[in-house]
Design a protein that fits this description.
By secondary structure, the protein is mainly alpha-helical. The protein is 42% helix and 0% strand. The N and C termini lie far apart (60 Å).
Length: 65
């Protein structure tokens, strides 16, 4: 007989649901530990024509992307 397929153990963190507040606190802690991250914006040199048109329409409507 074959053994049944089982999920991760009850103590595994990969299958455990956590409350949203606990998740948010964990993210905040990780951000504090990582420090300020300076992520450069995309230069936009490889945008498609449709993306350029969309951004132009947003700007024309008074938005800023």
């Amino acid at each position: 007989m074959t053994e049944p397929v089982t999920r991760a153990s009850p103590t595994s963190t990969t299958d455990r649901a956590i409350p949203l507040a606990e998740f948010a606190a964990d993210i905040e802690r990780r951000r504090r530990e990582a420090g300020e991250l300076d992520v450069p914006r995309n230069s936009g040199t490889r945008r498609t024509l449709s993306k350029r048109a969309l951004l132009a329409a947003i700007e024309k409507a008074g938005g800023r992307w």
